[in-house]
């Protein structure tokens, strides 16, 4: 779990969209983090609405995965979407062992509120995160995953 938390903090949460490696899949964005025998790979498509998958490999074998999809509300302009995603990255930098899937259970900054609710453990889980701005939900994402057997 320590590796997963490090990887999540070091990729999208800190780098954003621009710090990707050459993607394996055409039209995708890809972020990676390596440490020892572990590799974390996050591949996703889209921006305002996106879908993707995170995979943790150990010695070249996939051992854990999470799929996700979501985004900002349909009527959000690109500048507002960028502000929401800047806030999302701040929340995701606070990922911890008690909630290692996306971000903390709650993170607040000004008019922005991030919330994550989930059930299960690293072996099998599902959850949802939302961001509200001035009391209105402007972003939501669903995710699920677990250990690959």
Automatic annotation (TrEMBL):
One Pfam family named in its UniProt record: DUF5680
InterPro entries reported for this sequence: DUF5680 (IPR043735)
Annotated ranges, domain DUF5680: 42-148
Protein name: DUF5680 domain-containing protein
Organism the protein comes from: Thermosediminibacter litoriperuensis
């Amino acid at each position: 779990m320590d590796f997963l938390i490090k990887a999540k903090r070091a990729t999208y949460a800190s780098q954003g969209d621009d710090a990707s490696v050459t993607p394996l899949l055409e039209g995708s964005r890809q972020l990676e983090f390596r440490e020892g025998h572990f590799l974390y790979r996050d591949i996703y498509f889209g921006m305002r609405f996106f879908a993707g998958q995170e995979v943790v490999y150990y010695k070249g074998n996939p051992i854990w995965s999470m799929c996700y999809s979501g985004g900002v509300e349909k009527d959000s302009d690109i500048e507002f979407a960028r502000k929401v995603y800047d806030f999302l990255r701040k929340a995701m930098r606070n990922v911890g062992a008690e909630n290692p899937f996306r971000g903390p259970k709650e993170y607040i900054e000004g008019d922005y509120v991030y919330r994550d609710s989930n059930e299960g453990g690293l072996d099998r889980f599902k959850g949802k995160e939302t961001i509200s701005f001035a009391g209105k939900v402007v972003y939501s994402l669903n995710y699920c995953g677990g250990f690959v057997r």
